[in-house]
Amino acid sequence: GEHLAFEALVRRHQAAVARAVARLVRDPQEAAEVVQDAWWMAWRRLDTWRGEGDAGAWLRGVASNAALMRLRARRRRPEGHATALD
After folding, report:
1. 22: closest CA among 30, 31, 10, 35?
2. What confidence tens digit (pLDDT) does each residue in 7-33 have?
3. How far is CA 70 from CA 38, 59, 67, 80, in A?
4. Average pLDDT score over residue span 48-54
5. How would DSSP label each residue in 7-25?
6. How many beta carbons lie within 10 A of that of residue 23, not counting itself?
7. pLDDT at position 81 over 60
8. What is d(CA 61, CA 57) in angstroms, rounded to the nearest whole number?
């Protein structure tokens, strides 16, 4: 059930996670990549959610952190310098 439960979380909160990322990352293509990163991060860190409170808030927090990490990485690299994030 863990995989199915996570799949249900994704379906339930997908739109809210996408909106949270879009507010921070203005480029639609990059935002879509960040959303994918956020779901991967959430899956890997599922054990950090204690099952208390709002799962959607936790997921939006993971997504916001993923977006902020992407924005920080973008600021640190020189113009025209490709990275694994591109």
Report:
1. 31
2. 998 999 999 999 999 999 989 999 999
3. 11, 17, 5, 16
4. 77
5. HHHHHHHHHHHHHHHHHH-
6. 11
7. no
8. 6
- Tokens coding 48: 């950090």
Give 23-31 contacts, CB < 8 A, sequence gap 24+.
24/64, 24/67, 24/68, 24/71, 25/67, 25/70, 25/71, 30/70, 31/67
Structure tokens at 5: 């439960």
Q: Alpha helix locations (H) across 25-54?
A: 28-44
Residue type, 25: V
Residue in 43, 37, 39, 46 with CA at minimum distance from that of residue 73? 37
